[in-house]
Task: structure prediction
Amino acid sequence: MVNQKRRFLLVIIAGSVLLAVFSVLSLRLGAVETPFDQMIEELTSRDGVIYTYRLPRLVIAMLIGINMSLSGAILQGVTRNPLAAPDLMGITAGGGLVTVIMILAVPQYSAAMLPVYAFAGAVCASLLIYALAYRNGVKPERLTLCGVAVTGGLHAIITLIIVKFAPSAAQALVWLKGSLYARSWEHVEMVWPWTIAGALLALLSCRNLNTLLLNEESVRGLGMRIDRTRLFLIAVAVGLAGSVVAVAGAIGFIGLVIPHLARLLVGSNFRYILPTSAVLGAVLVIAADTAGRIIMPPIEIPVGIMTSLIGAPYFLYLLMRRKLG
Result:
């Protein structure tokens, strides 16, 4: 226990250092590199490109990393499956489907209401998965399989709609790839309440998440109402991930890669997994967004593509490891 706590503290310190380093790089680098003294001046005066454009983008990237990694950690705990993640459990696909429909099929849609529609789609998809998985209770395996099945179906519908409206599908495609382009302080205000509330609820639920790792007979013997607890935790995960889909589109693999990496670094105790996931998730998204801006300037690679380039090989590694194990 002492070694695990020490390892946790070391990981948090190292992650915080990386977070600070990549945050500075994110503010300085872009299509045009900003000198350090000019960056400090603009931040102090609250004016200029750094404060108006790059700082809110940095904050959004940080909040996205926290939300998606915590959501993935919760879903992996509820399903007892390290391959569970918001983008594999229908949350991002549900929001993406509603967004694509609004952009392509609804004339004169309200851009201001787009995040609301995306969040509603994420919630509806999650409710559908839970309803399909419920048979005298919810088994983790059935929940995971229903999530994968619904996600596949929603992606198929999204593809069909994009093919039908191909000439005018550019905006929808950008949304589906997940982008932080032109994000402002208004978007920060939309996400941070969900981050604060979701993170607090998740941290307060560490004991329940640890208990759910036991077999169901043991959990019931401890007096826990399993289905109610799972539903509550899924709702927290949906709130965290749905808020991300609402402002940044479908950003994948964070909720899969980061919780698993945190588990490898600090063990299986959710008291340590959740804070570690939050820090590492923020580092990953900030680093991916910064890299996407500087690899091919002035062309910007969406952050969702960058995280997929990292997450897809890792996902295959997990699959192979489970198969070989």
Summary: The mean pLDDT is 85. The domain at 2-324 is CATH 1.10.3470.10 (ABC transporter involved in vitamin B12 uptake, BtuC). The longest helix spans residues 49-79.
